[in-house]
Amino acid sequence: MAFLSDTLARVKPSPTIAMSNKAAELKAEGRDIIALSAGEPDFDTPQNIKDAAVAAIAAGKTKYTAVDGIPELKAAVCAKFKRDNGLDYTPAQVSVGTGGKQILYNALMATLNPGDEVIIPAPYWVSYPDMVLLAGGTPVPVECGIENSFKMTAKQLEAAITPKTKWLIFNSPSNPTGAGYSHEELKELTDVLVRHPHVWVMTDDMYELLAYDDFTFCTPAEVEPALYDRTLTINGVSKAYAMTGWRIGYAAGPAPLIAGMRKVQSQSTSNPCSISQWAAVEALNGPQDYIPENNVMFTRRRNLVAGMLNEIDGIECPTPEGAFYVYPSIAGLIGKTSAGGTVIDNDEAFATALLEEKGVAVVFGAAFGLSPNFRVSYATSDEELVDACTRIQEFCAGLA
């Protein structure tokens, strides 16, 4: 009898974390490494949020809380959804977890049975399919290629739905591509979903506030109110508020689903960190003026990276609408050999050789379900980005 669960054989560790760890190991050995693999802003958490955390500690707010969030944070979440998305929720419809990842996991664990299918547009965040597998469901990836700006079409969604479909996981702006769906594009998808009442929508809006140029964010239940009763709208404070380490995510949806998620959380982690919750209250209720200021820097960085990568023969890098990633194609480089002797027969070989030969860590596209591509996080300084992109240019110039 095997000791470890058979379920573990169905999933793999996060490739993004693995690449970040590999870069950290090489850096610890003294190598000159630039890591563009982690999805984490380089900005510090705003001072008002840190002050709120210190005040919570001083006030002794260090005990257990309600399993899925303090009333003050649930009220702030309800206010945020009303203010930003025109969505009305009560605290009984809100769940707060240890990061957006736990919210997603809780929802899947609370709803999936063997044989249930979950549609996931690819490229996707690396954890979506593995969480579905852990929960006993079947991920159904749908490839959304560069020709459609990495976005799912209504025709693709319609074709993927079966009687076994339980969820569509939707992410805009996207990790890993930064692609954002316009109101018109999203309405075409919601029109399909309206015709299939057994399909629920799990929308990951983590990058909502990181939107650039003239792109306007919208979310499914906002675009199509008929989906309100079967939509779980997920968000968090990690990206726009530079609070990745604080680990607070939240969601709102139908009360019975939220109750099921609360039951899962009560038997796993119980409540999120009390201090982080009070910091998140300040993040949602406090000043928001630094977000557009940060977005100006992100826009500049996006343009810098996309511009330098598009100068490379064999690479095509679309300019995304949001988040802080680009997802270039290396279709024109497949089959070439690096200066160090590595045959670039896929995007994993490209990323591995780039790290070993030039000290730049990126994440290969196969991890996100669509190749041949790689993901660059431009959430770092302009200087590092110029250095990294110059190294990528040099690496590609050395291919033969």
TrEMBL record:
<keyword id="KW-0663">Pyridoxal phosphate</keyword>
<dbReference type="InterPro" id="IPR004839">
    <property type="entry name" value="Aminotransferase_I/II_large"/>
</dbReference>
<dbReference type="InterPro" id="IPR004838">
    <property type="entry name" value="NHTrfase_class1_PyrdxlP-BS"/>
</dbReference>
<comment type="similarity">
    <text>Belongs to the class-I pyridoxal-phosphate-dependent aminotransferase family.</text>
</comment>
<dbReference type="InterPro" id="IPR015424">
    <property type="entry name" value="PyrdxlP-dep_Trfase"/>
</dbReference>
<keyword id="KW-0032">Aminotransferase</keyword>
<dbReference type="InterPro" id="IPR015422">
    <property type="entry name" value="PyrdxlP-dep_Trfase_small"/>
</dbReference>
<dbReference type="Pfam" id="PF00155">
    <property type="entry name" value="Aminotran_1_2"/>
</dbReference>
<dbReference type="GO" id="GO:0006520">
    <property type="term" value="P:amino acid metabolic process"/>
</dbReference>
<keyword id="KW-0808">Transferase</keyword>
<dbReference type="InterPro" id="IPR050596">
    <property type="entry name" value="AspAT/PAT-like"/>
</dbReference>
<feature type="domain" description="Aminotransferase class I/classII large">
    <location>
        <begin position="32"/>
        <end position="392"/>
    </location>
</feature>
<protein>
    <recommendedName>
        <fullName>Aminotransferase</fullName>
        <ecNumber>2.6.1.-</ecNumber>
    </recommendedName>
</protein>
<dbReference type="GO" id="GO:0004069">
    <property type="term" value="F:L-aspartate:2-oxoglutarate aminotransferase activity"/>
</dbReference>
<dbReference type="InterPro" id="IPR015421">
    <property type="entry name" value="PyrdxlP-dep_Trfase_major"/>
</dbReference>
<dbReference type="GO" id="GO:0030170">
    <property type="term" value="F:pyridoxal phosphate binding"/>
</dbReference>
<comment type="subunit">
    <text>Homodimer.</text>
</comment>
